[in-house]
Amino acid sequence: MTRVVLALTRRSLRGSLRRPQFLAPLVIFPMLFLAVNVGGLTETTSLEGFPAVRGFLDFQLAGALTQSLLISGVTTGIASALEIEGGFFDRLVASPIPRVAIVLGRLVATGLLAGVQVLFFLGLGLLFGAEIVGGVPGVLVVLAIGVLAGIGFGAIGQAIALRARNASTVQGIFPLVLVVLFVSSAFFPRALLSAPADSIARFNPLSYLADGLRDPIISTVSLAPVLEGFAAAAGIAAVAMALSVLALRGRLREA
Amino acid sequence: MSRMQLAVVAALVRRALNEITRVPGAAIPGVLAPTIFVVGLTSVFGQVDRLAGFGEVDFRTFVVPVGFLQAAGFTGAATGVNLARDIERGWFDRLLLCPAPRLTVLTGVVASAGLRCLLPVAFLFAVALATGVPFPGVDGLLVALLLVMGLASTLACFAVTLALRFRTQQAAPLMQMGAFAGVLFTPAYAPEELLAGWLEAIATVNPVTHVLAGVRQGFVGEVTWGDTWPAGLALAGMAVAFGAFAARGLRRYSS
C-alpha cells in the first residue's frame, strides 16, 4: 500500500511540474491579490478595531496563503478529472492495488505541495519586510496547519472530480471558492467586516483556518487561535477525505 | 470599410455572441465574476471608507467602476482564449482562407468583446443599484459604457496577440493575469493619496488609471470634460498600441 501511494504521489508531483500552467495560478493569483491589497489598503491598520500588527503585509500573508491552498485544491481536482477523462483512472482501477491508494497518492502530493506553498509565501513576506513574530516554532505551526488544510482542499477537489468526471466542471467551482473565501476573515479582521459577511464569517471554517495561520505571523504563538486553526484544518480534511472516498466508491459501483 | 467587410465583421461578432446562448455554462462564470468580486470586496473591505480621503463616497460605490473594468478584462481575456481554441481546432486557419482582409477578421474578433462585456456589466450594474449604489446619471452611464466597451476591445487585442503567439488555450492565465494586473494596479481600492508609495507610482504611469477615473466620475461626482478626455486619450493610445501588436501577430501567423 505504502509503495503504491508513494508511486502515485511521485507521479502526481511529476505531472504538476511538467504542466507549469497548473502551478502558476497557485502563486501568481494570490501574489497579485496580495500586492494589490497591501498597496491599496495599507492605511487600514489605523482603523479602530484592527489588531496590533507591524504592517498590513504581515496581516495579509495568511489570506494569500489560504487563497493559494484553495486554488491548489481546485487544480488537484482538475488534474484528477483529466486522469478520468484520459482513461488513466480506469487503468488504475483495473490494476491490483488498494483502491484507497488512488485517493491517497494524489492527496499526499497535494500535502507536499502545500508545504512548499507555505514556505514560498512566508519567504515572500520576509523578502518584502514582513516579520514572523512566532519565530521558528511559529513557522512550524503555520506549516502544519497549511499542509493539513492543503490536503483537505485537495480532497474536496478530488471528490468533485470523481463525481463530475470532467475538468471544466471542476474549473467552474473557482468563483465559488472566491465567494467562500470572501465571507471569511482571511483578508480583514472579523470585527471590521460588513454585514452579512461578519455573521457568515463566524461560522465559516476558513475564518478559523486563516486566523490560525495568521496568529504565529503577527504575534507569539497563542493557544486558542492555533488550536482553532488546527481544528478547522483537521475538520475540513476529515470531512473532505470521507467525501472523496465515498465518491470513489460511487464511481467504482458505476464502473 | 466596404459593405462586404462590414458584413464579415458583423458575422464574426454574431458568432461570438452566439456562444453565450449555445454554451451558457462557459459564459456564466465570466458574467458572475465581476459581481462576485465587487460584492466580496465590499463585504470584506466595506469599512475602509472610514479612512480620511474617501470623503462622502462609500466603498461599494467606489469599487463598482472597478467591477466594470474587471468585466472588460475578463471579456477581453476570454476573446483571446476563444481565438486560441479556434486555432487549436483549425477553424481560424479556415477563416483566414476567406477572401477578406486580415484586418477585417481581426476587427470582427476584437469588436465582439466590446459587446460581450455589456452582459456582465449590466448584471453588476443591476446588483449595484439594488444594493444602494446611486445612479450615475445618463451622461455618467454613457461615458462609463463607452469606455468599458473600448477597454474590452483593447484588452481583447492584447489577449489576441498572446493567442496568435502561443496558439494554445494554455496561455489563458497569461491573458487573464495581464488584464487583472492592468485593472488593479490603479487606485482601484482607495484614492491615490491612500495608496502605498510603490503602487501610487505604478498607478500614475498606468493608463488604465485614467480610464478608471473616467468610468468612476459619474458614480462619485459630476461628469466633467477634465476627467473624460484623459480617459479617452489613454484608451485611444492603448487601442493603437495593442491593435498594432495584434495586427503584427496576425501577419506573422498568416505567413
From TrEMBL, chain A:
One term under GO cellular component: ATP-binding cassette (ABC) transporter complex
The reply to whether Nucleotide-binding figures as a keyword in the UniProt entry is no
An example of a GO molecular function for this protein is: ABC-type transporter activity
Topological category with respect to the lipid bilayer: Multi-pass membrane protein
Q: Could you tell me the keywords of this UniProt record?
A: Cell membrane, Membrane, Transmembrane, Transmembrane helix, Transport
What positions belong to coiled-coil segments? none
| Alphabetical list of Pfam families matching this protein | ABC2_membrane
Localization recorded for this chain is: Cell membrane; Membrane
The family annotation for this protein states:
Belongs to the ABC-2 integral membrane protein family.
Name of the protein described by the UniProt record: Transport permease protein
The organism named in the record is uncultured Solirubrobacteraceae bacterium
